[in-house]
Amino acid sequence: LQKAPTACVLCAGTSDLPVAEEAAVTLELADYQVTRLYDVGVAGIHRLLRNQHVLHASDVAICVAGMDGALPGVVGGLTDVPVIAVPTSVGYGAAFSGLAPLLTMLNACSPGVGVVNIDNGFGAAVLAGAKLPSILSSSCMISHSYLLFLGINCSSYPPATSLINCV
């Protein structure tokens, strides 16, 4: 019996929850075991440090953060699993609708940190290894023509008759 892949989805603050949940639910639809660590930003680093064992037990970590975007760099320094950073558009002052955390994450010096675009929780989950065919076959039907429109090779997907919103 093969062990299900595991992921840890972290978010720095509660305003990052919608993007973090987008990633977590997408991974769950792809049969990942997901552990959520929410409100563990660097301003409350003790909450993150208290849960390091969860990071080390995961196959991948997705870090969602707005404002200064420092969480993925810290997580990358604490663990050796791949870290996918997701900047969010939340914040005030000089956050520039997610540009400031995006630039912080792109400049993180921790090894193994990759970055997706602003508010792209779904993209982070797909990058983490959630394969689109398993999402489609287990949770929704989508038309063959729509997959072709997206530029996806449809030969490996089951035929479907209706188009619904998957996530």
TrEMBL record:
Residue ranges of the PurE domain?
A: 5-137
**InterPro entries attached to this UniProt entry:** P2CMN_synthase_LarB, PurE_dom
GO biological process annotation, one example: 'de novo' IMP biosynthetic process
Question: EC no.?
Answer: 4.1.1.21
Q: Where is the signal peptide?
A: none
**Highest taxon, organism lineage:** Eukaryota
**GO MF:** hydrolase activity; phosphoribosylaminoimidazole carboxylase activity
Q: In which pathway does it act?
A: Purine metabolism; IMP biosynthesis via de novo pathway; 5-amino-1-(5-phospho-D-ribosyl)imidazole-4-carboxylate from 5-amino-1-(5-phospho-D-ribosyl)imidazole (carboxylase route): step 1/1
Q: Which NCBIfam families does the record match to this protein?
A: LarB
Output this protein's name: phosphoribosylaminoimidazole carboxylase
Source organism (scientific name):
Phytophthora kernoviae 00238/432
